[in-house]
Amino acid sequence: MSVQIFLEGKLLGIDEFLLAPAGAEPDQVFLGRSHWISLLSEVLPRALLDELGLAKILLGSSGGGQFLLVLPEEARPPAESFLEAAAKEITEVSAGALKLLWSCTENLGDWSDVRRRLQDAMNQRRGAPLAQAPLESQESDPTPAHNYFIDLASRLRDATSAGWSPEHPGRVAIGEGKHIFPLTASPDALPLARHAALSEDGYHPASTTTLGERAMGLQTWGVLRGDVDNVGIRIRRAQTIEEHIQLSVMYKQFFAGELEVICSMPEFWRKVTVIYAGGDDFAVYGSWDALLGLASEMERLFHRFAEQNLKDFPGAEGKTISMAVALAPSIDASLGAVFEEAGRRLEAAKSADKDCIWLLGRTLEWKQFTEAGGLKDSLMRMIAEFGCSPQYLRDLCGIYRETQSRLSRKQARRTGGERPWRYHRRIGRILASARNEGPQRGDFQKARTALIADLIGRSAVTVKLRPAGRVALEWARLSAEASS
Length: 484
Prior knowledge:
About 50% of the residues lie in helices and about 15% in strands.
């Protein structure tokens, strides 16, 4: 019986490649690049097995820019040749920004030892970049690759299969190739989230401008990015290869499956488009209001997923998710630039906390995010039911700005908040001046009292304006923009 080896492959430089200059049609090139990366980590390991005539069961895990295979020892040389050819073309197509690296080791010893040897070999390859594809092989003219990405972005949504051919070992073809892999209606279908909101004619993906125009309130769009907290620690704690594969596959199937289902729901299907769903993260863009609802739904489903599938694993690592929403500074902003901003905000949120969301200038725990949504509804009710002018939202935002400045000056002397009656009086004056007279005086008084308590808390002595209140005010202000 031949010795088995593990082969691990990784794509490096993904963010740099996605955000590289794109020339004409930058948004379509950006999406095509993202789709290519998602497909590469699924198609390459399967094509390798088919080329070598090996069983599909030898595929351990794939997706999210990496893959893991179990191969017989005698398959090492042809596997190396396959990956070298793919790596060379990947470097050419990406103009040197994207690298395919891999490492191999024998299936000997505990999984912790095998994983360490794989990582050591990968680090050795990473530290010797000149050993990879030669620089002179890179394309001097990136236009052909740009056309490839634009075509991929436009055709993938309705494609039924993806293919691989030895003539282009680093590319993924749509619907053709020596080896064909189904995308729909098959147990062997590639797990790929590819929902795209369509334009008004129903034939093409909607542009960011169109998605912004479909938003309620302020007509703009944004990007939502999410990432599982400390998932690397959870994966490294796996005691066996079976446990490692189980965890990797569970996370990937959750994001690929649930994201596709959520995006097909009535409130989202015309407003959001998937950028990618990785092994432990995801990104979508669309109407700003739909992104907030989608974030809440994804957190709810992931929380349930973790409770059901990870309850036997000790520790909190890999059981929570953090997200960030970045809004476009203008309706014609670059998708890549807003995606990059969302990534920066997500990293900042995860550095400060876990199990949270960055939104409208604040990092909130998910419980606070839910509170902000409820408070936003109360703020909008004051406009819809009691005739308050949308201007009152801006006046309330002014109270937060003034208070933040005042507390920063007094922080060294005071640890408490301001006196609550000051805010009751000011908020009451703002609401009273903004409201048209009507017969529902008693209901208005109750709603105003509840709103003040939600904004400043219920302490009778001191008060600090709540972060969820600040987010709720901005949320409501954006929702009421059209009527202001």
